[in-house]
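REVIEWER CHECKLIST
Item 1: Sequence provided? yes
Item 2: Single chain? yes
Item 3: Sequence as submitted:
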Amino acid sequence: MSGITSGKGKSIILGILIGSMFGIGTYTFIYARGYAYLTNNPASCANCHVMNEQYDGWLKSSHRAVATCNDCHTPPGLISKYAVKASNGFWHSFAFTTGWFHEPIQIGLRNRNVTEESCLKCHAGFTESIRGPHSKMEGEAASCVRCHRSVGHMH
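Item 4: Structure as written out by the authors:
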């Protein structure tokens, strides 16, 4: 046996790598208060400084009385909601840790689609009557957030 290249040596190295990744991940989750994102508290969205403007805007908006961040930015259903939260949490923390994010922060296509669906769901009674004329505007598909960008965040 050649020691480190043996099956047992490879298992030890793999165990150390997995343990290290788990330990670093757990430490980062606790240090960054990742558990706060499992709640429905909008203040947790402001844990990252790039979200302060959005949080402050939400505090001043008409939606504050009727909707939290999760109501607009996660899909309905427990599994769908936490799948989006997990994906966003990972990619947001990666972007913020590495500094690879656009400032001011911008909504991505997947999250924009989730938000659009939320608008249509909550405002179904109203949007059904106007959906026809708004279905195509200037060659683009209708978009609630394109025309009503300041509603939820007061930009």
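Item 5: Key structural point noted by reviewer: The chain has two domains: 1-31, 42-147.
Item 6: Recommendation: ____
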